[in-house]
Here is the input.
Amino acid sequence: INTLYDRAAGAYLGLAVGDALGATVEFMTPREIREVHGEHRNLIGGGWLRLRKGRVTDDTEMSLALGSSILAAGGVDARAIAEAFSDWMRTKPVDIGHTVRRGISQYRLHGTLEVPENEYDAGNGACMRCLPIALFTLGADAETVAEANRAQSHVTHHNRLADAGTLTVIRMVQAALLGQSKTELRVLAEDLVAAEPQYRFDRRRMENPGGYLVETLRAVFQALFATDSFETALVDVVNRGGDADTTGAILGMIAGALYGPDAIPRRWLGVLDKGSALACVDQSAALLRASTRCAGG
Amino acid sequence: MKKVEAIIKPFKLDDVREALSAAGITGMTAIEVKGFGRQKGHTELYRGAEYVVDFLPKVKIELVLTDDLVETCISAITTAARTGKIGDGKIFVSDVTHVVRIRTGEENEAAV
Amino acid sequence: MKKVEAIIKPFKLDDVREALSAAGITGMTAIEVKGFGRQKGHTELYRGAEYVVDFLPKVKIELVLTDDLVETCISAITTAARTGKIGDGKIFVSDVTHVVRIRTGEENEAAV
Amino acid sequence: MKKVEAIIKPFKLDDVREALSAAGITGMTAIEVKGFGRQKGHTELYRGAEYVVDFLPKVKIELVLTDDLVETCISAITTAARTGKIGDGKIFVSDVTHVVRIRTGEENEAAV
Ligand SMILES: Nc1ncnc2c1ncn2[C@@H]1O[C@H](COP(=O)(O)OP(=O)(O)O)[C@@H](O)[C@H]1O
Ligand SMILES: Nc1ncnc2c1ncn2[C@@H]1O[C@H](COP(=O)(O)OP(=O)(O)O)[C@@H](O)[C@H]1O
Ligand SMILES: Nc1ncnc2c1ncn2[C@@H]1O[C@H](COP(=O)(O)OP(=O)(O)O)[C@@H](O)[C@H]1O
Ligand SMILES: [Mg+2]
Ligand SMILES: [Mg+2]
Here is the structure.
């Protein structure tokens, strides 16, 4: 039976695996994916970033940067987070989104810890890296979780719609960590739709989702609720193309917590970059140990 | 928004790009151009004879930026591109009224 | 009057020219440039080793137009140049205070 | 300050530079460009077959000047570049808000 620590490792490995799997087909349409790969179902690298197989992208790297800033600072601190993101950007990462780059640049030049609220910040760049918040604030009250999410998101993305979507993903991960079922996760997704109707996902199949968080989560929720295993969920979502490494990463963190680490295909874990995998598993445990639920508070 | 154009010596392009990247500025467009100014042209061998070509190859970089980044941009370019010898080049700043990112339709601050 | 500059993928030049011509816009100047941005450069083989060249060839078109044609121009370029993949390019609009047609001396609206 | 851009026929570059130099204007930047306009493209022979290339090679010169030199600059270019045949080119004037000479840090009027 999966312990809390197993599920946390599952979530973090799921994130990394989803990122690496989706990266191969990022920016491709479903038809292009079929023409080149048939059904894409293995960690083969390549893609527009020409990755060696098993390599992760900014989705996993920013999560690790956020998590290590929380552990070093002993809490969710916007300045420590901004500094960690800036250090990460200095390593010349394999990819970095425009909105993330602008936010970090504002921090470097003016010390800005929260970018101004902006209709253009509804991209998925803050959601893709939210797993450390889900782990560290497990057991905390709703307002603390929401505030921690805002602190990390607003370093680069300040948008009410995106905040709501990211908060729901955090809640879904936390519910799954605590052993709740897919049915209960569905309730959380429906709560989001009730509060923000744009997020509804019961109409047309979302294919080729863009970076707009509404489209990203539509693909994630459709794939999650249409399948019954980690592997079928991930294969479903990445073959929809579009921002596939990010839909893969977000679905991977939810499904990894839900189905547990043993549900992640051996053949994927075997190819996943060893350094990243180790960092993910270590950090999942460290963040849990420091969380409200485990450390008390 | 502003457009910053800089005419620089070609071998300085990498140094200038590094200096700009420290401020998070990585998007730009570069063009090979011929510079005429106080720096004299070079001599070239052509069919065995040496003759003076009175222009020098330069690189022109164009960056469109939000207003708050312009000062940083100018000092990064100036520091990185300067050798102190004639012909180091010039920087021109002008206004841009509208920017569009073709791929997404994003506009202005969100497009640069 | 306005100047519209667009950085586009080189293979898109004909499509963009057709779209503009359908909107009655046929005069422009095109320049081969090097683009730096989020899109990755290409790999080249040099002395047996593979390395990444970090710019991409782009084409920059420049069109000077009367103000009333700018919106049409922007949407024609955007629609024709977009592939949805990273690196599609950008459009910049700026003011032009004076235009002269060299052949005739005609000015401003009569010169474009 | 102003930026004067002129698209001219390539063989006219030396004449234009002389005319400008006679007016005391010697600093400028030149770029090889492709012109599309009313002047028809040329035919080229390729693998034995003749085909029409619909652009024409042009040269674009860019000069940044103090406002008082702009009129002189325009008439020097126009007089020197004109042949009276279609395709002689165009001149565009726009505002420049800030200029820096990289070598010395001099600004604006002292930088051009
Ligand atoms: N008025 C100008 N307008 C546009 N470009 C210019 C102008 N003057 C100089 N340049 C460009 O700047 C370069 C350097 O100018 P130059 O006079 O040789 O050296 P310096 O600026 O160091 O005195 C030239 O090669 C040319 O490309
Ligand atoms: N700030 C900028 N100023 C001028 N040109 C730019 C700027 N940013 C990008 N470009 C040009 O736009 C092209 C596409 O940008 P890129 O970031 O690769 O893609 P996208 O806009 O699709 O995300 C670049 O190759 C470059 O020519
Ligand atoms: N609207 C425009 N914007 C920018 N450049 C232009 C424009 N129209 C023409 N040009 C440039 O001017 C050149 C001459 O234009 P063209 O129409 O052929 O001749 P003319 O100006 O003598 O009637 C073109 O080859 C092109 O480089
Ligand atoms: Mg990524
Ligand atoms: Mg992505």
About this structure: Residues C 27-29, 62-64, 101, 103, 112; D 7, 35-39, 56, 58, 86-90 surround adenosine-5'-diphosphate (ligand 3) (CB under 6 Å). DSSP finds two helices and seven strands in chain D. The first helix of chain D runs from residue 13 to 22.
